[in-house]
Amino acid sequence: MAETDRMTATTLSTRGSYWITTFGCQMNKADSERMAGILESMGYREAPAELEADLVLYNTCTIRDNAEQKVYSYLGRQAQRKRTNPHLTLVVAGCVAQQEGESLLRRVPELDLVMGPQHANRLDVLLAQVEQGQQVVATGEHHILEDITTARRDSTICGWVNVIYGCNERCTYCVVPSVRGQEQSRLPEAIKLEMEGLAARGFKEITLLGQNIDAYGRDLPGITAEGRRAHTLTDLLHHVHDVAGIERIRFATSHPRYFTERLIDACADLPKLCEHFHVPFQSGDDDVLKAMARGYTVDRYRRIVERIRERMPDAAISADVIVAFPGETDAQYRRTLDLIEEIGFDAVNTAAYSPRPNTPAAVWPNQLSEAVKVERLQELNALVERTARERSARYAGRREQILVEGTNPKNPEQMMGRTRTNRLTFFPAQRSDGRTIAPGELVTVQIEDVRAFSLSGKLA
Ligand code: SAH
Ligand code: SF4
Ligand code: F3S
């Protein structure tokens, strides 16, 4: 190491070590990567273990009550540690921080910093206030500054790129709008620039992120000659498609209310766009959808899936669904099961309804019992597993293009990656000529074994 490098390294390590635990969705994971980047640029280095770290940051989720409760039990342990180690810095970021604000300090007085998701890019400024001896709460509505820091990304192959923050929908069960705030779209140029930067560093796959990604651009100014808004997700996909070095592009999460034919056509026409669509339907019953204020019918959802399959017959379709929503009858619940069977989903994220603070449905009188929730969720999960298994069967004997992401953590002789349709796939780490496969390569795998949510095979 050159003398100057060594000096930088020692100066940089004077702040001590950090640990981040992330709960929740991809949005939170992307925020954590940016916050880790900020900490490293401030001179923190990653701690070898959570209980050794000088700064512990929990990036929290409050989508359901059990996600929120998990954070409190983690915090209890750190608060105890702080009693013997007063130099420990404790940070709660993310959606629980935004929801609870000041009251988190009353509940856990050992906390140094409580910061909502819109403040993630300001972590350094907020920590500077903490270093002056303050307890800081940052939960005000905030215009998210363009991210100029370099995120410290977990993968070197697959990267997330935020395109729209927040959500303007008002689904009656959902806490996201109150914790993530108003929609804020990033400019297409900034998104493309970030993708070019990632491509230059060897990234091959980009997932564009938004809670309601189809809303992209509606807060940006401009109308086209044809009279539609100038910035849509479809336009964005065309705009970023040609970034050299990026082989695959995905996006999530789609809302059935806004999912357009134009978007489906773009996905079919643009070769880097992967044939996987995550379109939550939430319920298979029109009256429940209405009570959820989702703004579409089951028939509209069916038409979207039909259109996707017309243009891309092999496309994978996944969704989120909630059972035991207030007032959901057994017959209504059965319609959700029927829809899953009818569509044949590749994967479904399932949840039993959980009442959330500041959401309309939480105070309705027609809440269902815990027993009904458990029973419906179990039956639903069994069905989801079966349809996933049936969908996996179509891969048997096929040759699939896999983007190699890394080594199988459970078996170092295997590598893993995913099909374009997002099925996790395992295969040998060495070619028959002895050459080893490297992350970032595109390989062809002959599929031999199929399971509900993963595949394995040999190199073709
Ligand atoms: N923006 C996406 C998903 C956001 S939250 C969409 O509109 O679909 C991720 C998932 O959590 C939701 O799709 C929903 O299935 C689930 N979820 C949200 N609030 C919930 C609640 N109160 N109880 C149970 N599940 C919930
Ligand atoms: Fe929540 Fe509905 Fe927004 Fe999705 S679209 S984040 S479910 S309010
Ligand atoms: Fe959870 Fe917040 Fe995401 S509540 S699901 S981390 S937007």
Any key phrases for this structure?
OB fold (Dihydrolipoamide Acetyltransferase, E2P); 5-stranded mixed β-barrel; 460 residues; binds iron/sulfur cluster; Transcription Regulator spoIIAA; binds S-adenosyl-L-homocysteine; Rossmann fold; disordered N terminus; alpha/beta
Write up what this structure looks like.
- This protein has 460 residues and is α/β, with parallel strands linked by helices.
- Among the domains are: 9-138, Methylthiotransferase, N-terminal domain (Rossmann fold, 3-Layer(aba) Sandwich); 155-274, Transcription Regulator spoIIAA (2-Layer Sandwich), CATH 3.30.750.210; 396-459, Nucleic acid-binding proteins (OB fold (Dihydrolipoamide Acetyltransferase, E2P), Beta Barrel).
- The protein is built from 14 helices and 19 strands.
- The chain has helices spanning 3-12, 26-42, 65-84, 94-100, 102-107, 123-131, 176-180, 188-200, 233-240, 261-269, 286-292, 298-311, 330-343, 370-393; strands at residues 17-22, 45-46, 55-60, 89-93, 113-115, 136-138, 158-162, 164-165, 184-185, 205-209, 248-252, 276-278, 316-323, 347-352, 399-408, 411-418, 424-428, 442-450, 454-459.
- The strands form 5 sheets. A 6-stranded parallel sheet has the order 2-1-3-4-5-6, sandwiched between helices. A 5-stranded mixed β-barrel has the order 15-16-17-19-18. It has a 3-stranded parallel sheet with strand order 7-10-11, with helices on both faces.
- β10 (205-209), α9 (233-240) and β11 form a beta-alpha-beta unit.
- The two termini are 43 Å apart.
